[in-house]
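dumping this here before i forget
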Amino acid sequence: MRDRFPLVVAGGLLVLAMLGTWLVRGAARGGFADTLSSWRAQPDGARGLYLLAEESGLPVSRRTADLLILDEPGTLLQLAVEVEGAHEEDPDQTALATERDEGLADEDVPRHGLNRLHVPEMSEDETEKLLAHVWAGRTLVLVPWGSRENPLLDKLGVTLTKADTSLPMRTLVPPLSSPYTLDVERVEARVQAYLELSGAEDAVPLLEDEPLGLTVAAVLTHGSGRVLIVGAPELAMNQALARADNAQFWLSALRALGPGPYVFDEHHHGFTNERSVVDFARRYGLHFAVGQLLLGLGLWALALKRFGRPRPPPESTRVGATDALFAMSRLYREGHHHAFAAQLLTRGLTQALAQHAGLPAQAPADTVAESLAASGRSDLAQGLRALVRRAPEVAGEKELMHLATRAAALRQRLHPSGPPSGAPPPPVAEEP
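structure:
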């Protein structure tokens, strides 16, 4: 136990470090996810909206696949999903946002950690599939980030106008009664963009900025389907659900859109169905993956190493090996198997010389001798041939000991340093 004490100490420290890491990650659960992800529990996440709908009896789920195949019913929620081909018709609108580069004042979705490397934009093909899906009678909740136009909004006929993000919290009210704003008197949230619905047919405003009279949320039709667009992404964040009637707005709007299920798009927040070591390294940092690999190799190496003085083998092992050796020697002597023992010795010598000659261990003695002679070791070749010829003729213990001595002498010649200086060369049987 004294020899294993360092391993016990190292193991205890490792357990303490792992427990501390789990406690820290547990206290910050959901912090690894992207902004407005339904898995993110931080103030700018949408986990509260997901749980609100779930606890209110609405069927909710998460989608981690792309939008190239859309055949399931229900309502798709896209919160702060960036669309490929986004553009700004009026660059002056983003003048207030380009200098801040943080939070709601930024035109780009704030990313956390390595999310900025692997969060995909919605591609052109996905946009077309999604529009066709809605046209066929499905529903969509769209909460864009910033005020830039994109192909999806262009197809829906909606234009975004940048709001002044330096203004305080805005009070939003329903301009008219509708099932989407049932039991909603006022909503409080910071606005990023106002909606211009001149290009959208049958668009119905749902929320307006009370002092300015500008539309913040609206529902419109696209073919046989409906689309709910909200220009205040903070309205879906965890930090805003407790204000005024914000939570009630979402419940009323989702219920009015249809029976569900309500599917949160997590693929465009960086979550996919595939999990591998490469994905782990890309998401949480390559250094963590390399560190775990090195830690595992280190523990494996320590497990193979002993601390302290070498211990003699157990008494039973030494006694058993000695007894087995004496028993085998007695069997050979009593059975007069001297020739067989000699052949075993020459076979072992042939295998050792075959490895030295670069041949397989099963190579016959003649082939090994020829290879040794060709490589300049004629002394070894002659000795091997002599021992192989004399092995079947061994008839007594004295002759067997003599053959074993010569075989040991040939093995000694394999050593690169050769025999000790001043020592006579070992005897080698000469060819008759």
